[in-house]
Write a structure and sequence with these properties.
heterodimer, A: 457 residues, alpha/beta, Rossmann fold, Alpha-Beta Plaits, 6-stranded parallel beta sheet, 22 strands, B: mainly alpha, two-stranded antiparallel ribbon, 1% strand, globular
Chain lengths: 457, 483
């Protein structure tokens, strides 16, 4: 697929990085800063074009006429929208995705239906906020990923002392909690992936991925670890877009405090929030944290722009007694560094955003892609189309589908029903199939599987 | 100081005001009460004075400056109040001295509703009508001045709106031009008055009473054509209609205008002052009803409800109608009601008092100080709706509060010195400064028995309250008069 990325910022370069990894993609990046582009070109096999991302001349030079998709990721909403509109009006670029952060725009969906020529909008801050919200809603979970419009979720949790299932084979799960539909799709032990069958025994410190409906998540989590109390007190460090959105989303149900270092910003934030208390100060200031009773905080989330200070303030908060700490961390190297240490959950914003982007690049009708384990594994949601003759999925029982190694079908969503995958479950047309892939390199084969009318791989 | 420009406006104002004497003449002829001569005389006196003031400066083309606005607004009430007393002086029956006439006239124009007259039921119809009409024009003046003119001078509760509130009232100039805004408000005011008069008429009043009471209800005045006020009709239905219209008149008129234009009631609920006003009256009603019921003051639950609710809304909005002798209510109730008039109605309404929005801001400011003690590093804004209120506005509110208390104290001392006992003095100052009307003790039914000093201090109180104090105080500072 030929892809044009506008803007070589954090999201843009991560997207490029991830897309280039797949052989089939040809990526061109546009940015106005030649330095950034040169550096990017040194690392990645991409074409770069210097210029203003929304100017027709620049887009044409970057190949807007030929590309299959344009992804506008500059840090200006207006440039992103304009670029998509220009590309469509002048060059008929088939698919256009724009990053739009301002709620003022995203809350008016009608703008993008028929008005502005943007097919799909992604809002990284909104995605990251949702992600953190889910983690706060399900204490104990490391990751909560949504499929089929939220009907079913994939949850990662670390097995811990006190979990009823520890030391028992996975099969017993249905005996422990008989009324809950749930399936363990993968277990990571010491960094190594295991595709579990009924006899696999769950051990302490295993990272367990399971799939369940939203209402059942709590019950399943309690099998993996002693269930934490519901979260009441939340302290957020950083009054940026993510911090404010998060505070806004949580302030009605939780006691929220938000720490912001910049005085003017703190004032501005305090106007936007109704119940949350905005504190002006440094999140790494021990005195301030103690004064605000950090030791009784259920969760400390640091979401400032600087990942180093996120890590430090989260570690400090943990030492001062915060029950659980989370930090926004972009660099994969840091993420690995802290995931074993004092920080309970590292939140990788790029990965979260990327999943949504990736879904659009995939062949076949892939609705959702979630990158797991720093991009090594992937969970995808694909729609089965066609009938028994055209498709290699529809009309077949799961055991008869030739899945590549490391890929498993975890669940099937049919209309409003969620079916946990069994070996004899037969896939029907328009089913949403949720697959787990321990190795994302097999993605090609899975995509082919869901394409209609293609004779062979 | 462009004295000529002020003089020109004042002359025009008086000339126009003389026109309002014509309607009572018709009323007098209609009811054959032989009082028409007083109004005819007043008409010529006021018209003559108006022309005398206006003619020498009719060619004056200089614009009014902002500072002249204070003078015009203050003169509006003082001069019209004085000239409005003319019919009371000229009429043969009732016989009124200069002090009494001015008191009655100012009480009408400022929509206070305190009176020195007794035996209303026997007075000429035209005089009764004229009192109601004074209130109605006073109310109209308040609305237009409060919404359209005072904000330009930087005083008055509406100023708070202009600067800081979100939602529908953000652009408080309802229309781009001030004359259009005034016209729009006049339409809303007239519309509500007509609706009120019709409702009274349908509920059983005769047309004369219906119109007269509609005038004083919508103006939150409190004058009645009977000594027993609304209680004269002894009709729960009329009581409830009055409750509804007093409540409506206590709401910011720009909200009415916006609701009417958008044909939706949503604007009301988005307005934090309206919500506070609703809660304040609701809470007060519940408290008063429970207390009345608890002590068993009225025999039936129904009577407790109608009398209690009516009195709370009437006093709370500073109207001053009565259906019951609330001054004789047991325990703390009379004082609670009198104190509630300090809160009053919303800014931009015809109500008196300090206005709900000021109390709301002071309450929020107080809450913030408490929170600050718990979280010393916290950044806590004082917000109305979802907008931060500028600290200068909060300062201004506290300044207003301080001056209000000071003025109250001074007037209280004057009343005490004039020989009134404490409760009556306290009530007399409260009901005049808050533009309420009936008080407690010796002033429960009227100011007729108060001495001349007391009456003049009450007149000052009414004017100060109506002009939100600062407008009048600024005129006595030397800096204002310096060129």
């Amino acid at each position: 697929m030929k892809i044009l990325i506008l803007g070589a910022g954090q999201v843009g370069s991560t997207a490029a990085h991830s897309l280039v990894r797949e052989e089939a993609n040809e990526v061109t990046i546009v940015d106005h800063d030649p330095e950034v582009l040169r550096e990017l070109q040194d690392r990645l096999d991409v074409r770069t074009v210097v210029g203003h991302a929304a100017y027709p001349e620049v887009l044409e030079r970057a190949g807007a006429r030929e590309v299959d998709m344009i992804i506008a990721l500059t840090n200006s909403d207006e440039i992103n929208m304009t670029a998509c509109h220009v590309a469509y009006t002048l060059f008929r670029t088939p698919r256009r995705i724009a990053r739009i952060r301002a709620v003022e725009y995203t809350s008016r969906q009608a703008l993008f239906r028929g008005g502005l020529a943007v097919d799909f909008i992604i809002s990284p801050e909104a995605l990251v906020t949702e992600h953190i919200e889910e983690l706060i809603h399900f204490p104990g979970a490391l990751q909560v990923l949504e499929f089929a419009d939220g009907k079913v979720r994939l949850v990662a949790a670390r097995a811990h002392e006190g979990g009823a299932l520890i030391g028992h084979p996975v099969r017993e799960l249905s005996e422990h909690i008989p009324n809950v539909e749930c399936r363990v799709v993968a277990i990571y032990r010491g960094g190594q992936g295991i595709i579990p069958d009924g006899d696999t025994v769950v051990e302490e410190d295993d990272e367990v991925f399971f799939i369940a409906a939203r209402k059942d998540i709590r019950a399943v989590l309690s099998e993996m670890r002693k269930l934490d109390d519901p979260i009441r007190r939340v302290v957020i460090a950083g009054g940026g877009n993510v911090g404010v959105r998060l505070a806004k989303a949580l302030e009605d149900t939780n006691e929220v405090k938000l720490i912001e270092r910049n005085y003017d910003r703190a004032r501005a934030v305090s106007e936007k929030l109704d119940k949350a208390i905005v504190l002006h100060g440094d999140a790494a200031d021990e005195g301030l944290l103690l004064e605000e009773n950090i030791d009784s905080a259920d969760v400390f989330v640091s979401v400032t722009n600087s990942e180093e200070s996120n890590i430090l303030s989260a570690m400090l908060a943990k030492r001062l007694g915060a029950h659980k700490v989370m930090a926004l961390i972009n660099k994969p190297a840091y993420e690995e560094l802290v995931s074993a240490g004092t920080i309970d959950i590292a939140i990788p914003p790029q990965q979260i955003t990327l999943g949504t982007l990736l879904a659009h690049v995939r062949r076949g009708d892939v609705v959702k892609v979630h990158a797991l384990r720093r991009g090594a594994a992937e969970a995808i949601e694909a729609v089965a189309h066609g009938d028994g003759r055209e498709s290699r999925v529809v009309g077949r029982a799961i055991e008869d589908i030739q899945l590549p190694r490391g890929a498993t079908i975890s669940a099937v969503v049919r209309g409003d029903d969620v079916l946990m995958a069994h070996h004899d479950t037969v896939i029907e047309e328009d089913d949403h199939v949720i697959l787990f892939m321990s190795d994302r390199r097999q993605i090609d084969e899975v995509e082919c599987l869901f394409e209609v009318g293609v004779s062979s791989v | 100081m462009t004295r000529a420009a002020v003089q020109r406006v004042l002359g025009l104002l008086l000339t126009m005001f003389s026109g309002t004497m014509l309607i009572p003449i018709f009323v007098s002829i209609l009811y054959a009460d032989h009082a028409w001569g007083a109004f005819a005389g007043s008409f010529f006196i006021i018209l003559g004075s108006g022309l005398l003031i206006w003619l020498p400066v009719r060619g004056e083309r200089r614009e009014l400056r902002l500072r002249d606005g204070f003078l015009v607004v203050a003169l509006f009430w003082v001069v019209l109040g004085l000239f409005g007393a003319a019919p009371f002086l000229l009429v043969e029956y009732p016989e009124m001295g200069f002090t009494d006439a001015v008191f009655e006239s100012i009480s009408g124009l400022t929509t206070t509703g305190a009176t020195i007259l007794t035996g209303l039921d026997t007075l000429p119809k035209s005089i009764l009508y004229y009192r109601q009409q004074l209130q109605w024009f006073g109310g109209l003046g308040i609305i237009v001045l409060a919404v359209a003119v005072l904000p330009m001078l930087g005083v008055g509760g509406m100023q708070l709106y202009r600067a800081e509130t979100p939602g529908p009232v953000k652009d408080t100039k309802l229309t781009p031009r001030i004359t259009e805004t005034a016209k729009a408000l006049w339409c809303v005011y007239l519309g509500i008055t007509v609706a009120c008069a019709l409702a009274y008429w349908v509920a059983g009043m005769n047309p004369f009473d219906a119109i007269c009471h509609a005038f004083s209800t919508v103006a939150i005045g409190g004058f009645s054509t009977y000594d027993a006020s609304i209680g004269h009709f002894n009709s729960p239905l009329i009581d409830m209609i009055a409750v509804v219209f007093m409540f409506i008149a206590g709401v910011n008129f720009s909200l009415h205008f916006l609701a009417w234009r958008a044909t939706s009631l949503k604007g009301y609920l988005l307005d934090s002052e309206f919500c506070a006003y609703l809660k304040f009256l609701g809470f007060l009603t519940v408290a008063v009803l429970l207390y009345l019921y608890w002590v068993g003051y009225y025999g039936t639950l129904f009577e407790t409800f109608t009398k209690g609710l009516f009195q709370v809304v009437s006093i709370g909005t500073t109207t001053g109608f009565t259906t019951a002798d609330f001054a004789a209510w047991p325990g703390a109730l009379p004082i609670i009601l009198i104190l509630s008039s300090f809160i009053g109605g919303c800014a931009g309404s015809t109500a008196g008092g300090m206005k709900v929005i000021r109390w709301l801001l002071m309450y929020k400011q107080g809450l913030r100080e408490v929170q600050r003690l718990v979280h010393p590093s916290a950044e806590i804004p004082v917000k109305l709706g979802s907008r931060r209120v500028h600290h200068r506005v909060v300062d201004a509110v506290w300044g207003f509060f301080a001056v209000y208390v000071l003025v109250f104290g001074v007037l209280l001392i004057i009343q005490l010195a004039s020989g009134l006992e404490f409760v009556s003095s306290f009530a007399a100052v409260a009901v005049t400064l808050n533009n309420l009307g009936p008080g407690l003790g010796e002033v429960a039914s009227g100011f007729g028995d108060v001495g001349a000093v007391g009456k003049w201090s009450a007149i000052c109180g009414m004017l100060l309250g109506r002009l939100e104090i600062f407008t009048l105080l600024v005129l006595i500072t030397p800096t204002f008069w310096r060129p």
